[in-house]
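4.2 Preliminary Data

To establish feasibility before requesting continued support, the project team ran the inverse folding procedure on a target of 59 residues. The structure was first converted into the token representation described in Section 3, and no sequence information of any kind was made available to the design step. The complete token record follows.
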């Protein structure tokens, strides 16, 4: 998507952003996660996403 969805009063529609959250299976754009052990940003994949949800990794 090249443009932002806006309302009739030119406000950004946030409902899709809220629904997608940071789930890499729903978000079309690349997502990255700051990995403390590696001290760098790594692509957020399904495995890292699941680890965050399971509280094995901290944001």
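Position-by-position output of the design step:
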């Amino acid at each position: 998507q090249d443009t932002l969805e806006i309302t009739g009063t030119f406000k950004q529609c946030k409902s899709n952003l809220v629904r997608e959250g940071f789930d890499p299976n729903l978000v079309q754009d690349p997502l990255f996660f700051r990995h403390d052990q590696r001290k760098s940003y790594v692509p957020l994949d399904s495995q890292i996403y699941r680890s965050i949800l399971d509280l094995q990794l901290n944001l």
